[in-house]
Specification:
Elements lengths: L54 E5 L2 E5 L6 E6 L5 E4 L5 E6 L2 E6 L4 E8 L3 E7 L2 E6 L4 E5 L12 E5 L8 E3 L5 E6 L4 E7 L5 E5 L6 E6 L3 E6 L1 E7 L2 E6 L5 E2 L3 E2 L6 E4 L14 E6 L4 E6 L4 E8 L5 E5 L3 E5 L6 E6 L17 E4 L2 E6 L4 E6 L5 E6 L7 E3 L5
Length: 401
Amino acid sequence: MNKSIRNRVVTGTALALAVSTVLTACGGGGDGSSATTTAKDEPSAPPAATAKNPLVASFDGGLYVLDGESLKLTSTIALPGFNRVNPAGDDSHVIVSTDAGFRVLDAAAQKLTDITYEGAKPGHVVRHAGKTVLFTDGTGEVNVFDPAGLTEGKKPDGRTYASAEAHHGVAIELSNGELLSTLGTEEKRTGALVLDKNNKEIKRNEKCPGVHGEAAAQGEAVAVGCEDGVLIYKDGEFTKVDAPDDYGRIGNQAGSDASPVLLGDYKTDPDAELERPTRVSLIDTATAELRLVDLGTSYSFRSLGRGPHGEALVLGTDGTLHVIDPETGKVEKKIPVVDKWQEPLDWQQPRPTLFVRDHTAYVSEPGKRKLHAVDIESGEKTTSVTLPKGTNELSGVVAGH
C-alpha cells in the first residue's frame, strides 16, 4: 500500500451532497460509446403539467420527463437511438448523449434546446466546482462550461481542450482552474494528466492501466479508476492506491463532499465476458487505503450512488438498496425496492438503475415499467408509478454542485 496522503482541505465548491459525479458510468465490458439501435419514431407528447424538480428517463424511442415529487409523467419527447442522460448542473437542464453528440434538454420547460456539442461517441459528463465537463470519445475533445449559462438558450462560453488522441476518457475541472483529463488511445488507456488554467501540462501519471471513470471526495480529492486500483489527485500530487489483487479493476465510482471515502465497483476477472461482482470498494482519499465490502449480491455500473450524509448506496441484484457506512464498511440498512434481477450481457440494455438526489433514491424497474422513490433515511418507499414503456437510463436536474 502506498504512503498516506495528507488530508489538507482545498477551499472551493465541491460535489453536491446527494449526487456524486458519476456520472456517466459505463459498462465494464464495453467501451462506453454510443451506438445506434433500431427505434421507431414516437410522436412527442405536449407537456401535460409543470414538472417540479424534473426527472428524465430514457426509453427505446425517446425520453420521459417526470415530476420529481409525484413521479407523474409530464411529457414524452421523441428521440430515436440509444440515448444517455446526465444532470447538466443547474435546476433546469439535462445533458442527453445522442448518436451525433451531446444535446441539452430543458427539462423544466420539457423540450430539447438548440444547444449541441457535436461529435462521435459522446461519453462522460462530469459536474464539479460549478463547472460541467463533457468528454467526446470519438474526438478526444473536452468542453468545460458554467451550466448557469444554459439559461441564455445558446452554448455558454467555455474552455476547450483537445486530447492528444481520441479515447474513451473523462475530465474534471477543479475549483482552482486545473483540469484533470485521462490519457490514452482507442486501444490503450494509461493514466491522467493535469493542466493549469491556460491548458499547460503541470502533472502526469501513467501508472493507471485501463483508466476509467472518476469521482471527487471531501477536500477535493479526485480519483480515477484503474485495472489495479485507483489514482488519486489531491493538493497538486498524484497518489496510486493499489488493489489487493493483481487485477482489481475499479471502473465506476461515486463520491460525496460529505466524506473523504469514495465508493467504487471491484472486478477481478480480466477475461470475463461480464463479471458480476459481489464486492464493492471503499477508497479513503485521506489515508490512501482501500477496503473491500462483500454485499453477498451482485450489482451493475448503474447501481452506485451517495446519500445526503455521504452514505454509500448500492442497488443489488437482490432488489435491495444497500446503505453502507463509508467509514466502517458496515451495511447499516437494506431497503427492499424492486424484484430480483440479473445484469444483461449488453451494457446498453435496460436494468434497474439508481439515481440519487437530496434525501431520495429513485430506482427504475424496467421489467415492470415502474419507477420508485425511496426516502433514504426512513427506508420508506414513498411513491411508485407505472410508465408506458420500460426505461433504461435515469437522471434529473441537480443544482448547487
